Amino acid sequence: MGDDRGLFGESVRRHRLRLGLTQEDLAARSGLGLRTLRDIETGRIIRPRPATVRLLADAFGLADTERAEFHQSSGGREAAPAADGVPAQLPAPPAVFIGRRGELDRLGSVASLAVVSGPPGVGKSALAVHWGHTARDRFPDGHLYLNLRGFNPDGPMSPDEALRTLLVGLVPADRVPDGLDARSALLRSVLAGRRMLLVLDNARDAGQVRPLLPGETGCTVVVTSRSRLSGLLASHGATPLMLEQLRADEAEALLTRRLRGVRVPADPAVVRALAEATGRLPLALVTVAARAATSASLASIVGELAESRLDGLRGLDATTDPRNVISWSYRALSPAGARLFRLLGIPPGPDISTAAAHSLNGGDAGPALDELTAASLLTEHRPGRYALHDLVRDYAATLAAPDEAAAARQRLAEHYLRTGRTAAMLLDPRRRPLVLPPVPAEVSPEPIATEAAALAWFAAEHVNLMALLRHPAGLPAYAWQLPWTMVDHLDRRGYWDDWIVAERVAVQGARRAGDPHAEAFAHQMLARAYVQKGRFDEAETSYDAAIERYALAGDLLGQASTLHGRMFMWERRGRPDRYVQDVSAALEAYRRIGHRLGEARALNSLGWHQAQLGDRAAGLAHCQAALALLTELDDRTGQASTWDSIGWIHHQDGRAAAAISAYEEALALFRQAGDLLQQSEVLEHLGDAYAAAHRPAEAATARRRALAILDGLGHPDAARVRARRH
Question: Which of 83, 576, 597, 660 lies 20 to 30 A from 7 at CA?
């Protein structure tokens, strides 16, 4: 018990210090009493209440695995939001929030839609997120948050992409339809009757927001934007909140709170001068406070600000720009900190991991990350992940010289490519590996050792990878190599729209690189993505292009694998004749080139389909021939797939015991291979066989195990299995 108490108290203290919070700051941020926090950190509170643990997890901005580990350190656990269908997506509240009493009250009175507008750096996002946390009890069905990236360098998020992102927080990915109108209609249907909060942050214009709005009252939407979005005021009766700079007393209180624990200003006039010099804009105030925390005297800071000619901050009109303060803070950085700051303006994605920052920097970025975070130029919005405010990034992006930027961009692309290749081979060890030269000395790929770690890495980097693909910056090889790494992630997670985008980029990149083999593979994967979306005509065209380009490259194995893969399209189109034709052609090609592994797998596919068509005797014979060859080749994954086929045939023939035995062989082999998705499929089949053998308890256990795997993977099939698990 004593170890548990110390573990939780240490965990709270570690997260508090990570965010640079005093105990007083954390008390204000979490809503807990200061004495309670002190008792937790000193170990006087042995068993914190679940509500206390939840409030602290919210205050620290913890999610997913980090949140579960935090709850576990308290001696309890919290169910993941997905388990009960209640999303909890709000970012952590701001470390210190001062003032805005009137605006908070107005948000509290909003029935359906509010638009928070104002100049950059005035605190729009902070207000929306802070209010969302204080009002979370009003929204029992959860809260969604989406950064619409209205003013990002790579352009704003499209309404279509925004709808998909919102929907996958509410429904299985395979239920998300194509098309803006269909997605908008589904979102309205899903939100009907729910009491939820939607924070749509950083919108560019009303047209970006309209398709995302619920159709009924009950949900509350808070939109933030630099623009007033007057179109929403007219069409939806939105409540407008125009933020201006903080009042003088609020600005001074914010500075005082940020300086607490570092220095106690002796002269209120100095604090007042600092507040006025920053135009009383929260972003500028926080930046100045971070600089002042390390300065010998506050008076000297006032002098430096005066010399920097920050008068442009004093007006709240279109010229207001806290980048003046940012430039002043940049000049105060060490050479290493200034260099990393310049480089952080280069990545097109919204954030960066510590490991990726090392590669971007070309060496250890740890001290520079700490310096930039301490200077409030960078925010560690989740443990090990950093983000720049839009304005800070805008400024940083102007600083790097062309050669410096090009080298850093290539190091970052190498980081994602090398890490992605390792992760991709863990997700599918049967793939032909991507052949690359040795890792550049200045690049530090992330060590990924398990399938679960690979899936987690792709999930964390998904938006960054897609942003990088849209900006290959004259590096055509990366344009096709990065999609190569993402195939299984995009397919398993149901990101089929993004898969299509990625493979279209890959086709063009491979063509520019003059690599027909790479172009063929990109067409082959594009066809697979089209099949997942039911776009069969486009899939057929892409498959034909893949076969043609493999022939141009003299790659008979590529042609055979494309024919073998195309069978799934014919299966879904109800064309068994073409299925058998393609598998038979693939089998012949594999035999012609002596590719015995391909031959064995094609035999299994042929046998499976013959059994599906009713000729189970021929199907079983082909599967048994495949199993013998796969056993000889020691291909355990192929053996597992074939045992699964044999189990299904036995099940259909009424031989439940034989089916159970075959499925158990398949399950053991997939478990050895670490293939979680295939394990879940076999467990489903095993559950059916147990049910046929009148063993309901074992059937329920098998289906429960299948569901647990799918939930862990975030796979869209989880909903289907959940519906039939008992």
Answer: 83
Cβ atoms of residues 441 and 393 within 8 Å: no
Q: Are 97 and 130 in contact (CB under 8 A)?
A: yes
| Assigned CATH topology for domain 623-726 | 1.25.40
Find how far residue 424's CA is from the centre of its chain: 17
Q: Give the three-class secondary structure for 221.
A: strand
3-state helix vs strand vs coil in the chain, percent to 5: 65, 5, 30
What's the CA gap between 284 and 128, in Å, rounded? 19
Render pLDDT for 685-715 as a digit per residue (tens, 0 to 9).
999 999 999 999 999 999 988 888 877 665 6
pLDDT at 677 > cutoff 70: yes
Q: What is the pLDDT of residue 314?
A: 36
Point out which residues pair with 113 in neighbouring strands: 221
Q: In angstroms, rounded to a whole number, what is the distance separating the alpha carbons of residues 540 and 562? A: 11
- Please say whether the structural domain 2-78 has been given the CATH code 3.40.50.620: no
Mean pLDDT of the chain: 84
> Where are the domain boundaries for CATH 3.40.50.300 in the chain?
101-242
Domain limits, CATH 1.25.40.10, in the chain: 623-726
CA 285 to chain centre: 31
Judged by DSSP in three states, 430 sits in coil
122 has a pLDDT exceeding 80: yes
**Any idea which residue has 């599918």 for tokens?**
428
Query: Does CATH number 3.40.50.300 belong to domain 101-242?
Result: yes
User: Residue 370: left (phi > 0), alpha (psi -120 to 50), or beta?
Assistant: alpha
DSSP states along 579-611: HHHHHHHHHHHHHHTT-HHHHHHHHHHHHHHHH
Separation CA 391–CA 377 (nearest Å): 10
* Lowest pLDDT segment from 230-234, 238-242, 290-294, 534-538: 290-294
Whole-angstrom distance, CA of residue 540 vs CA of residue 528: 10
Most confident of 75-89, 151-165, 262-276: 151-165
Query: Rounded CA gap, 8 and 638, in Å?
Result: 46
**CA dist 638 to 658, 682, 705, Å?**
19, 14, 22
Q: pLDDT (tens digit, 9 = 90+) per residue, 516-538?
A: 999 999 999 999 999 888 899 99
CA distance 362 to 165: 33
On whether the CB atoms of residues 142 and 218 are closer than 8 A, the answer is no
Task: Name the segment(s) of the chain with CATH classification 1.10.260.40.
Answer: 2-78
| Interval 31-44: pLDDT, tens | 677 777 887 888 77
Dig out the tokens for 506 from the structure: 């890959």
Task: Specify the 3-state DSSP secondary structure of 239.
Answer: strand
Distant-in-sequence, close-in-space partners of 14: CB < 8 Å, separation ≥ 6: none
